[in-house]
Amino acid sequence: xxxxxxxxxxxxxxKIDGRLEAIKVNTxxxxxxxxxxxxVDEDGRRTKYTHQKINQNVFRKPKExxxxxxxxxRHIESKVADMPDRDRRVLHVVFTKDHQxxxxxxxxxxxxxxxxxxxxxxxxKIPSADAARSLGRGxxxxxxxxxxxxxxxLNITIPHFHDMGLRYRQLDEAIAxxxxxxxxxxxDEVDFLMANRERGCHIWDDFESGKLPxxxxxxxxxxxxxxxxxxxxxxxxxxxxDTIMPGTILFDTGDMIRTACNTGxxxxxxxxxxxxxxxxxxxxTGGYLEKAESFLTETEKAGIKxxxxxxxxxMAVRFLTDYLAGDVYYNIAYSDHNLVxxxxxxxLMKSMDAQWDAx
Length: 359
Ligand code: ADP
Ligand code: GN1
Ligand code: MG
Fold this sequence. Notes:
With 359 residues, this protein is an alpha+beta fold.
């Protein structure tokens, strides 16, 4: 049974009223398998839901992922309870008919359901400086909402997720094994990454040593994990909460910079379209600081610029590792997709370097 058929058969196990009208596939994420269903109730009202098969190759303990998500969404719910549009400000987990936050199918796959948040946009590329500013505010606001959440309650869903040293060791292994014979074609990429190895480790090392405060972080704040109001471009909701864990806020500033300040898409093949947009950076970090300045330490503030470079670098390391390992981690749409992604990250880093003093 393919994923689509599997989705159809599991949906019935969730507590959803009405008749199933349609199911569509959403291919925006690189990790889980995502489907959107539409249900119609007796009065003809339509409600949409997101159903996801959790990728167990990536998340070994899906139950712990869901525990985190329930704890965090309940916390945010309490913060937005008085807002008129509170329903679109936080993810809502739909339980199964037997009151579980996930359904386990006959193959042992874990499925979860959220209410689909309507009347919002997602972007793979930022459309304007105003949207960048609002993305920054959205991430800052998310961190603020969780600033009084006890991070020690969280399960570590992917240990050492942003540990650059570990990611390089995984790259070393993939280079040594070269299981697909792809190494010969990526010499320049490997050389550039190796030349940047030491610099890339500073943020993780400062986090480990306690120089950077330990806070609750999202760890995957790329732009398409944020939902925007289509009229005002306000960032109303941060989704994809699988990697919520204790971390440094620089992981989150880094990923929003990586994705919102790239003039091209993450998988743009024409590298002449990929560059670092300083104006977007200013708008993005300006918006972020509006919300976060009050609680950040000087060391955190001073690290924001470097965080964009470091998180871009770690993605290059991870995409290249996956390319060499034979595409075992990320969802891909074609055979050298991970190589294309690697190259855009490297082009973005080089463009940052070329303009380093301008931002
Ligand atoms: P992945 O971990 O694979 O990235 P996500 O949880 O980010 O999966 O979901 C993939 C995409 O599905 C998102 O980028 C977003 O476009 C859409 N999506 C997921 N959940 C919702 C939701 N509750 N409401 C609206 N869109 C959603
Ligand atoms: C994955 O799940 P998604 O597509 O939002 C990945 C992130 C990477 C991102 C690169 C759990 O994010 O770490 O930054 O791809 N998520 C996981 O686009 O590995
Ligand atoms: Mg996602």
